[in-house]
Amino acid sequence: MAGLELLYNCVSSSVTSPQDVLVCFVHWEVVKSGYKCLGAGDEPRDGEKKSELLPAAWNASKELYTLRYRSNDDKSNLLLKAITVDSTVIFNLMDSATDKVTDLTITVSDYVDEANLHTFESVFKNTEDLTKKLKSSLLPAAKGESSERKERRERAPAADTRPSPDHDPLRIPHRVPPTAHPPNWTDPMAPFAAGGADLDPFGGRPGGMIVDPLRSGFPRSGFDPSGGIPGVLPPGAVPPGARFDPFGPVGRRRPGPDPDHLPPPGYDDMFM
């Protein structure tokens, strides 16, 4: 991590606790986000200037660390506070430009090796994970990144909300779903395109003038002409599966006329 080693070597002689190491790391991440440190404490002092280094007496209190920062473009200030609670450090960051306050609680032993406080190569642990936590929960977006995103938004063309010239708001959409298959139209140049159902009765084409009541598509009653029609056709007179056009009602004929067909004598007598 470029710059962190130089920073830590500058303050290693004054580091006396693992929370000092953690605060130093967070300070460097704030600097990388586009800020410089002004000094320690809540109130500004005369002669302060922006610096990447930690100020004097930055770790005078092991219970409460307070550092102030200003952005490189001088448009915003940050107030960082770190409070030690048992084995954790609670970081609190306030951005003066947006009045936004963020906080993050970190377990010191997860990221600092207390046995090697003065050895930069081994004092930090899991730095990548710590950086991700700081960027996602505590630190503001880097100034360079935020301005780049703003420029991309400004360069992006606005969405064209004008309707298409072919758009007709009164047009009724097709009822056929777009995923439906197109109809299987007969090729007009085929030999049996006109009257094909009559010219080729066994070709499986629908329609035609030859009507087969047994293959008309309506529910069948179970009647099989190959079994014969009592009193009309003997069994076997109609080959199985042959076209057959019934020439009379299937079943026994009713004996005699229906009594309702002819009115009884004197039917117009109201007293009958």
From TrEMBL:
Main location: cytoplasm
Intracellular or extracellular location(s): Cytoplasm; Endoplasmic reticulum
Region named Disordered: 137-184, 217-272
Superkingdom as given in the UniProt entry: Eukaryota
Pfam family, one: PI31_Prot_N
InterPro entries: PI31-like, PI31_Prot_C, PI31_Prot_N
Keyword line: Acetylation, Cytoplasm, Endoplasmic reticulum, Methylation, Phosphoprotein, Proteasome
GO cellular component, one term: proteasome complex
Positions of the PI31 proteasome regulator C-terminal domain: 178-249
GO biological processes: proteasome-mediated ubiquitin-dependent protein catabolic process
Record-linked PANTHER family: PROTEASOME INHIBITOR, PROTEASOME INHIBITOR PI31 SUBUNIT
Family assignment from sequence similarity: Belongs to the proteasome inhibitor PI31 family.
Record-given protein name: Proteasome inhibitor PI31 subunit
Organism: Pygocentrus nattereri (Red-bellied piranha)
Record gene name: PSMF1
